[in-house]
Amino acid sequence: MVAAKRRVPPDGGDTLAFVEPSDRRERRDQTRRRTERQRRTVLTAAGAGALMLAIVLGLAALSGGGEQGGRETREAAPPPPELPRGGRSIFPESRVVGFYGSPEDEELGALGIGSPASVARKLERQSRPYAEGPGARPTLPAFELIAVIANASAGDDGKYRTRLEPKTIRRYLAAARRARALLLLDIQPGRADFPEEMAVLEPFLAQPNVSLALDPEWHMGDGEVPGEAIGSMTADEVNAVSARLSEIVRRGRLPEKMLVVHQFTRDMVENRERLRRYPGVELVLNVDGFGDRTLKVDKYNEFVSGRDPARHGFKLFYREDTNLMEPRDVLALRPQPEFVVYE
What is the pTM of this model? Predict the structure, then answer.
């Protein structure tokens, strides 16, 4: 128990003061010193912790930025797709050599003779000579598949055409990919319009190895029937299709696409001087029609004599042509065709 002791203050008043024993004062002093040391330790630790936290946060920010940058690098848009045999432009790097036709129908061309795999092997052999000799360039094979076939009968909708089933197109698309070839979807519209049929094919045209062909011979007006009349289209109609194809290329960051327009009469494409070129689209005017060598060469010379803003194509017929031209004969044409297709 603490003893009370009277202490006399300087002013003479009476005041009671507590007097502690020396051992208790010492313990209290030790406690006070220990508490002060703990406080200093805590403050020092807190300061160090704050500093460490700031460093960690700073490093985290830097690391996070780097990680974010890394993610941005890793998640950056993939490189744009290329053509089946590399690159993003078709011409003048390559010469396209194709087979034309419809599945399992020999009457409609070489593409329909045999399975897609066997056709791919035949096409590879047929393409090989076009990569040899003067002016040679690598060949790019193509399946020109008639995706819309003109009919002599009106059908339920009165359009005089039949569309291939999507599963059939997908089968040829898969075969073209395995062969590292283009798939060229051909439209014979009957009494339908080219843009109408193109819209149905757009899911396929969004693929990097799929291009488009138009067959104005089979574009019928009111009252006309495929096989009884010879159709045509205007340059403005070609331009409309080309502009839409260009938009598909731009939107999908796709490589170049061909837009082939078949013709065997001069007026099959009306107002040819109005034809335009669009970004990402290689317009090809293909000289169609069968006959003997002299007739075919004359027709080609006639059609390429103008100043069309287009590449030149040439079609050969295994059955209908008289004395079928050899690849060396085709390459002797001037200018050389950049697209050669066999039916």
Answer: 0.76
